[in-house]
Write a structure and sequence with these properties.
Elements: H1 6-18, E1 25-26, E2 32-33, H2 39-55, E3 61-66, E4 71-76, H3 83-98, H4 102-111, E5 131-136, E6 139-147, H5 152-165
Antiparallel strand pairs: 1-2, 3-4, 3-6, 5-6
Helix pairs in contact: 2-5
Length: 177
């Protein structure tokens, strides 16, 4: 990143603002214990998100990724633009990897321009509303992203419908709260 100290600064900012946990538990044997988002739940969440937007007349794509940002489920609704596949996947990746709603990250960047480097962490980051972390049992197990509705708040509402369908934890707090 051309000498940028972003890799050290950004995690500190995110831990401070979003109260992120240090990570999964470690067993006595030194093995990491992590919850895993099942394929069935990922598919159910993506389908519910796409359906919610379709019922409102929006042609979208919905993506769900695991905790590492790898796609588990991706649906492109009938008539959704080809760009929606990429935007929904990148929003889901961003929400999972940064463990925060992408809309809150966008608001944070607009208020604190010094952390614009968040956008440049890697080519998969997309800081645009419509991505939410998937929290289950207080642990981030993935992310969901929706792209294609005419506004970030509409994409996010559809993503939220996907989370509700699988019984994910409700998102608490926000940037600066």
């Amino acid at each position: 990143m051309n000498g940028c100290r972003c890799n050290r600064i950004i995690p500190i900012v995110l831990f401070t603002l979003f109260g992120l946990s240090a990570g999964p538990a470690v067993s006595a044997e030194g093995l990491v214990n992590q919850s895993v988002l099942s394929l069935a739940k990922a598919q159910k969440a993506a389908a519910a998100a796409e359906r919610k937007c379709r019922q409102q007349g929006y042609k979208v794509s919905a993506a769900v990724v695991d905790r590492a940002g790898v796609i588990q489920a991706l649906l492109r609704g009938d008539g959704a633009g080809p760009h929606t596949v990429d935007s929904s996947s990148r929003k889901a990746y961003t929400a999972a990897s940064l463990r925060a709603p992408t809309q809150k990250l966008a608001e944070l960047i607009s208020k604190k321009p010094k952390i614009q480097a968040l956008r440049e962490m890697n080519e998969s980051i997309l800081i645009l509303g419509g991505g939410l972390p998937v929290r289950m049992g207080g642990e981030v197990v993935g992310g969901i992203g929706v792209g294609g509705a005419p506004g970030a708040q509409l994409d996010e509402a559809c993503a939220q419908a996907g989370l509700e369908t699988i019984g994910a934890d409700k998102e608490k707090g926000g940037a600066g709260e």
